[in-house]
Design brief:
This protein is mainly beta. It has two helices and nine strands. It has a domain of 147 residues: Porin. Strands 1, 2, 3, 4, 5, 6, 7, 8 and 9 form a nine-stranded antiparallel β-sheet that branches. A hairpin with a 3-residue loop joins β7 and β8.
Length: 250
Amino acid sequence: MTASMTTQILAGGALLLAFAGFDGPAARAQTPGDTPPAASTTPAPTTPTAPDSGTTPTPPAGTATAPPADTMTVPPADTTTSPPESNNPTSSSPKRQSRFRIGPEVGVYLPTSSKARDQFGSSWLTIGLGIGSIGRVAPQGQTSFDLQVLYQSKNGNHAFLAPVGIGYRLAVSQSGQNTLYVGATADVYLADLRSGDYDVHSGLRTGFGGSALVGANFGDSGFLEARYLAVSRIKGFDLSGLNLTAGYRF
């Protein structure tokens, strides 16, 4: 090998070394085996998220928070039910106390038979005693016990007549406490007759009959009544007649 060739080889080797020294770092950066540079440690900005429902967010330290609104519960309205007002005007007033009542009853009986009038008198005056308040007659009608006592004497003769039965009265007109009524009765008549002219000493006898009546009540204190009594014959006497009665209670 000549000197010139040796010189050329050395010059070529130097040139290769020069090129190798220039491209070496770039080649090393692209070598897969090399370790990549470390990532930046600067934290990425985070997006705030809404707190979950029912969770109270915690304010950052040093931040003043407003006090919660007053949550005092308002008591419910009074639901106590008031008792209904009574429609009865007398419910608020003291109940009227019942009391014992008594008063006179006066009547006159007018027989229709001339024979009865001649033997016992044309008018039989009766005076009695009424006990208890006078009942008000209902518009729909009502039944009641019927009892009267008639007695008359004249010239040694006497007549006793007592109708006992059941009566029915019906109010036909009312004005305040006053009531106009009509009615009828069905009775058994108890009689005791004595007549010297006809030689009658009957003792206690029974007859049958009834009456039709009309009357008026004045509250529970007074009444007027007129009734016609129809009586079967007893020992030959017809004792039918008109009876007028008035009564009052104290």
